[in-house]
Amino acid sequence: MSRICAVGANVFDTLISVPHFPEEDTKLRGGEITQCGGGPCATGLVAAAKLGAECVFIGNLADDFGGVFLKADMEKYNISTKYIDMLPGFSSFCSYIMINEENASRTCVFNKGNVPETFLNDEKKAEIAASDILMVDGNDLEAAVCAAKHAGKFGTKVLYDAGGLYDGIERLLPLADILIPSEEFALSHTGAKTAAEAARKLKEMYDPEVVVITCGKDGGLLFDGGEIIEYPAFKVEAVDTNGAGDVFHGAFAYAAAAGFDYYKCCVFSSAVSAIKCTGTGARRSAPGYETVKNFLKERGYDEF
């Protein structure tokens, strides 16, 4: 069984559906309220676990309501919490997300809390060395850099979910084997005019094995030094797009650890992301492997 570990954001999300995006300084009646786990790495890890990987989260959580919820949520999805340290007296990373029922878009306001950086002791480093993939997202940066450097010594591939322009990420980017930025990040970081140009620049600047740029409903592209290759998005009746990128990264980690080539990883992950968007809540809507295989088979992809 593939083994995947993650160092990064683990966020207590509160989602509320709204009939349309509200105007400033007005009142609007909302719909369903959902409390759930979020954060790029942690949600990606859930997606990988639901597909069948053995998964471990490494990091600190506050011992407040949000942190207790998040630890239990990890365990609900069969993710090992052996290397989660619960710290008293701190506040959890929280976000508040409006889901627009008109177009399934999401608008997020967050507070990062004040949980200290994770310290990687020998046991945590051993876990990283024993894993097939290490997922990082630019949060918990000191620990992520340390983890990525350690992974490089033992052949553990580093998958970097580059979705945010955080301070100091130039230290993490050169350590990525699999670099998966959003189109927004790629264009902003490189100054390129197109995703294809940005992919070439990122490969030249940081020399990962592969650059995969996600372009939302337009699919995306990958570049490994040869030709730019586009991969598809799958059209679905979207209900909630929040966390679609997170589950893409987790699915990619699962597929890469399973030995798929990088184009096949992209197609597989795009399908996982599309299926997730048909339900509310990124973690609970992430599909299992058989669901993804059947989804792809119905669309002419029989190789899964």
Task: Explain this structure.
With 304 residues, the chain is of the alpha/beta class. The protein is built from ten helices and 13 strands. Strands 5-4-1-8-9-10-11-12-13 form a nine-stranded mixed β-sheet, with helices on both faces. A four-stranded mixed β-sheet has the order 3-2-6-7. A hairpin with a 5-residue loop joins strand 6 (94-100) and strand 7 (106-111). It starts with a strand and ends in a 6-residue tail after the last helix.
Low-confidence stretches: none
Write the CATH architecture name: 3-Layer(aba) Sandwich
Query: CATH superfamily, please?
Result: Ribokinase
Q: Specify the CATH class.
A: Alpha Beta
Mean pLDDT, to the nearest integer, reads 95
Kindly report the oligomeric state of this protein: single chain
β content, as a range?
A: 15-25%
Please count the helical segments: 10
Number of E-type strands: 13
Would you tell me which CATH topology applies? UDP-N-acetylmuramoyl-L-alanine:D-glutamate ligase
Itemize the secondary structure elements and their pairings.
Elements: E1 3-7, E2 11-18, E3 33-38, H1 40-51, E4 54-62, H2 65-76, E5 80-87, E6 94-100, E7 106-111, H3 122-130, E8 133-136, H4 141-154, E9 157-162, E10 178-181, H5 183-190, H6 195-206, E11 210-214, E12 220-223, E13 229-231, H7 244-257, H8 262-276, H9 282-285, H10 289-298
Parallel strand pairs: 1-4, 1-8, 2-6, 4-5, 8-9, 9-10, 10-11
Antiparallel strand pairs: 2-3, 6-7, 11-12, 12-13
Helix pairs in contact: 1-7, 3-4, 5-6, 7-8, 8-10
